[in-house]
Amino acid sequence: MTGVAPTPIGERVEIGAAPGVQPVLEIRDLSIAYATVAGDLKAVSHVDLKLAPGEVVGLAGESGSGKSTLALGACRLLRPPAIIIGGDVIYRGRRIGPDGVNILEQNAKQLRELRWREIAIVFQSAMNALNPVLRVRDQMGDVLDAHLKLSREQRRDRLASLLDLVGIPRERLKSYPHELSGGMRQRVMIAMALAVDPEVVIMDEPTTALDVVVQREILAEIAELQKELQFAVLFITHDLSLLLEVADRIAILYGGRLLELGNSEEIHHRTAHPYTRGLLDSFPSVHGPRRSLAGIPGSPPDLRSIPPGCPFQPRCRFSRVECAAIDMALLPVPGSTTNHTTACPFEMPDASGVVASSALTAEGTAVPTELSVNGDRKS
123 pLDDT exceeds 50? Predict the structure, then answer.
């Protein structure tokens, strides 16, 4: 690759839903590290993300990219040796008010009042998240008892209606987790998350370890409930193809950094970052012509020693010397009419080989260059 001067790098842009929409959850410049004997491991680095009321935002990336750490850190659910080293998480629910509260500044009592009542979580493995020695009614009842004052009759009716909501027979309230199928356990977790009418539900790999038929049923159930109850969802998964179906917007995370953010249509058809393209190329298309699948070479970065600039550079087939100088600010994608942003300041070549490309400036305008598929700039 030729050694040329780094291209202009723009300033960080505002990242969120449509202009004028007050986000119900706003993550600002959040950074999280794990303390280890060999040094601090920075799992999340300067992440900004907004979630509007009633919106479904997908968070995608390979295992170890920081997805679950980001979500758990935003709710203050991380345990040592994890530590939040910077940023803010602002929650503005209708029961809180437009000024909101900073979750990272709340004390233990305030956090107990926020969790589940305002922000609920569907954890990755229902079998591990549910207590094996408690019946379903007792575990779901704990959520109600912690946040609502109900009579015994109201409590019983509420538990039954929650199972109705997720399509489980009421008699299963007497069951233990091991007596339920994998799909039923996941539905119980969803029912628990919705028990006290939260405004934000974080779903951390909610269909992991389920077969494709049950996965489809669970996704349809989630979509129907979200449409009916109008709660906002942060949907975490490594399966980008799944997010293209269920999410309004998708954020791509790699090495603890946001690489691209846009609506599902843009992410699918107007991909702006090589890592996103790699994820899209790694799963087959059910419709249309057959195409060759291509995995992403190499492994995710060692978070103790991330290379300067773009963390994806060592695995990127379009990498160049300028990539080491990128500051990872999200820049507007040229030609996008919505808030589609990327951390890569270069447009990618297509499959045809040498194409005209451009670098992005702070204003989102294009600076023409010539780029070959191996990343060399041509005169």
Answer: yes
Mean local confidence (pLDDT), 221-228: 92
Spatial contact of 35 and 226, defined as CB atoms under 8 Å apart: no
Q: Is the pLDDT of residue 356 over 60?
A: no
DSSP 49-80: EEE-TT-EEEEE--TTSSHHHHHHHHTT---T
Both tokens of 295, joined, read: 């995995």
The arithmetic mean of pLDDT across residues 362-371, rounded, is 41
CA 147, CA 10: separation in Å to the nearest integer?
46
Residue pair 32/85 in contact (Cβ under 8 Å)? The answer is: yes
Query: Which residue type is seen at 262?
Result: G
Quick check: 329 and 7 in contact, CB under 8 A?
no
Bond into 349 cis (ω within 30): no
State residue 150's pLDDT score.
95
* DSSP H or E run through 277: helix 274-280
Q: What single DSSP character describes residue 325?
A: G
